[in-house]
Every structure is written in structure tokens, then in C-alpha cells.
Automatic annotation (TrEMBL):
CDD domains: Trans_IPPS_HT
Pfam families: polyprenyl_synt
Domain of life: Bacteria
Pathway where it operates: Isoprenoid biosynthesis
Required cofactor names: Mg(2+)
E.C. code: 2.5.1.-
Protein name: Polyprenyl synthetase family protein
Length: 349
């Protein structure tokens, strides 16, 4: 019998290597991860369903809407690299990371006045801003209770991560500054996305090392892996928002343009000194509301040097992630993490 198929009668069934839409390359590992992610989902839902009905309904709103569960997957996968994975602690840590991520989404949607999230009406739109903020706080509270089970080191890690998340949001709000206090726009943006996205993915990866008895050097490498993956993931989203048709990316192109967010491809495109960059600076001086101007900006960006430079930056962070994996224990989990990193890039086409 082939190792790649299981035969029943005359039909052959190919083993499922996928988790959350990513081919991890190993059927046994994928099956184990799907089982463990089911435990994550059950704990996540049971904790949030344990409060008053009026609170649980709002707190579960985005949970039931779906999502990639990328951060729990990072914790569970990196937890397979250490010599002694502690399944119970890994599951709790994975739930903590997802709760914190969800809480930030509730708060971000209030700040951005977003109407939709994960294909459903945002909580602030369906209810109101105060309800959405309180739902986010409810998620933070339950994450804190799970952290108490994991001990002081876990509490300290997430407290530090939460400070980085808030700093990134504030840094984005303040902007790169002007005059002598100005920060290079690209440097500022990369710092923001590390704080807002990379820091929590780094914590998720660090938890994997902490709860699989990895040594101190490996844990530090896992944290750096999470840093690189988090930044790469966000840059990929920046590129997709410009480059992909709506039916390919699952989101309407130009969302960042309409929200007035200057992402890395835009920053690079406005810096290249061409006539097109001058027009882009004019268009991007404020959020775009006119469909024709959004279409014009998208056309200019797609043909710009900024897109090429953003793709180069993306590949550099992927290379950084692969370098960390080169120095971590080999095996199915390492290969799966490589595939997960490449999936981040492959999304941009």
C-alpha cells in the first residue's frame, strides 16, 4: 500500500495534510493539530459562554464568525518542536492568544468605525461602541484568568505584549511626526505592525517553546520567528489589499485607501520621485471616498516601484523566519512551520 493513500475497496483516499487551509505536509501531524485546535475552540467558547447571556452573546460574536486561528496554530506548532509538549498548557496558552487577538479586534473596530468584520456586521455596528469595548474587556478578563493558571511568567509575557499592542496603536494614531522629531515613514510603519501584529504572534510562538521544555536559546529563536512571521503576514495583507481582485482576496481591494491607512507599498510608492508618485501623494493626502479615485490609486500602486520594494521586504522577513527554523529541531513540525511561512507569501500571488 502506498504511504500516500489508504485504499477501501476500489476507492483511494488521500490523507488530509491541511489545517486552517494550509498544507502542512504531514497527515499525522495535521490530524493531531486539528484535534488540538478542536480543544482550543471548545475551551474558548466554554469560557466566553460562562458569563451573563447579554455579555456572552457579544463576546462570542466574532468567535462564531470564524477566523484563521493563526495564533493558536503558531503556539501548537512551535510546541511540537520541544522535547516534552504539555498539551494542556499549550491549549490554554493558545486560547489566551486568541482571546487577546479577538479583544483587540473589538477595540480596533470601534476606533476605525468599522461596519464589517470577518464577513459579519461588526459588534460596534450591530450593538454600539460601548458594548463592543466592554466585550473586548470581557475577553481580556477571561484571558487573564487563564493566564493565572499558567503562572507568573505567562502573566508577565502577556502584560509585556499587551503594552506593545497599546504602544503600536498609539504610535499609529500619533503618526511619524514632523521636523526634527520625524521618523522615517517606512521605519515607523514597520515598527507599528511589529507592535500591533508581530508582538502577539511572537508571544504565541514563545509559549510553544515554554510549554514544550525547549531550552532558552530555542525559545528566543521561536520568539524571533514569531516576530518575522507577524511582520511578513501584515505586509502580505498590505500587498493583497492592493494587488488582488475582491473575489481572490476575500476582501474589497482598496480598503486601506478608503480608511486613510498608508501601508508599506504606498509609502514606498510615494517616495520614488516619479510623476505617478506625485499624483499618489495628492490622492493619498486624505481617505478616499470616491470609487473612481480609489480605482486610479490602485492602478498607480499596482504599477509602482513601491509594490516591488514591498515584495522584496516581505521576502526578507520570510528569509529571517527560515533562518530561525534552520537552527531549530528538524522534523514534521519544522517542515510544517516552513510551509506556513511560505503560505504567507504565496497568498500575494
Amino acid at each position: 500500500m502506498s504511504s500516500d493513500s489508504v485504499t477501501t475497496g476500489t476507492a483511494a483516499t488521500t490523507p488530509d495534510h491541511t489545517v486552517a487551509g494550509v498544507d502542512l505536509g504531514d497527515a499525522a501531524l495535521a490530524a493531531d493539530l486539528r484535534s488540538t485546535l478542536d480543544e482550543v475552540e471548545k475551551l474558548l467558547v466554554s469560557r466566553l459562554a460562562s458569563g451573563e447571556d447579554f455579555l456572552s452573546e457579544v463576546a462570542l460574536h466574532l468567535v462564531t464568525a470564524g477566523g484563521k486561528r493563526f495564533r493558536p496554530l503558531m503556539t501548537l506548532l512551535t510546541g511540537q518542536l520541544g522535547p516534552e509538549p504539555d498539551r494542556e498548557r499549550l491549549v490554554k496558552a493558545a486560547v489566551v492568544c486568541e482571546m487577546i487577538h479577538l479583544a483587540t479586534l473589538y477595540h480596533d473596530d470601534v476606533m476605525d468605525e468599522a461596519a464589517m468584520r470577518r464577513g459579519v456586521e461588526s459588534a460596534n455596528s450591530r450593538w454600539d461602541n460601548s458594548t463592543a469595548i466592554l466585550a473586548g474587556d470581557f475577553l481580556f478578563a477571561h484571558a487573564s484568568m487563564l493566564l493565572a493558571d499558567l503562572g507568573p511568567a505567562a502573566v508577565q509575557l502577556i502584560a509585556q505584549t499587551f503594552a506593545e499592542l497599546v504602544t503600536g496603536q498609539m504610535r499609529e494614531t500619533v503618526g511619524p511626526g514632523t521636523g526634527e522629531q520625524a521618523t522615517d515613514a517606512a521605519e515607523h510603519y514597520l515598527r507599528v505592525i511589529w507592535e500591533k501584529t508581530g508582538s502577539l504572534i511572537a508571544a504565541a510562538a514563545q509559549f510553544g517553546g515554554e510549554y514544550s521544555a525547549a531550552d532558552a536559546e530555542q525559545i528566543e529563536r521561536l520568539r524571533r520567528l514569531g516576530d518575522a512571521v507577524g511582520i511578513a503576514f501584515q505586509i502580505a495583507d498590505d500587498i493583497i489589499d492592493i494587488a488582488s481582485p475582491a473575489d481572490d482576496s476575500g476582501k474589497t481591494p482598496g480598503t486601506d485607501l478608503r480608511e486613510g491607512v498608508h501601508t508599506l507599498p504606498m509609502i514606498y510608492a510615494m517616495e520614488d520621485g516619479s510623476a505617478d508618485s506625485a499624483r499618489l501623494r495628492e490622492l493619498l493626502a486624505q481617505p478616499l471616498t470616491d470609487d473612481a479615485e480609489v480605482a486610479e490609486a490602485l492602478d498607480l500602486l499596482r504599477a509602482s516601484e513601491g509594490m516591488r520594494r514591498a515584495r522584496i521586504a516581505l521576502e526578507q522577513y520570510v528569509d529571517d523566519a527560515m533562518a530561525e527554523l534552520d537552527a531549530l529541531p528538524a522534523g514534521p513540525a519544522n517542515e510544517a512551520l516552513r510551509r506556513l511561512v511560505r503560505f504567507t507569501v504565496d497568498r500575494v500571488g
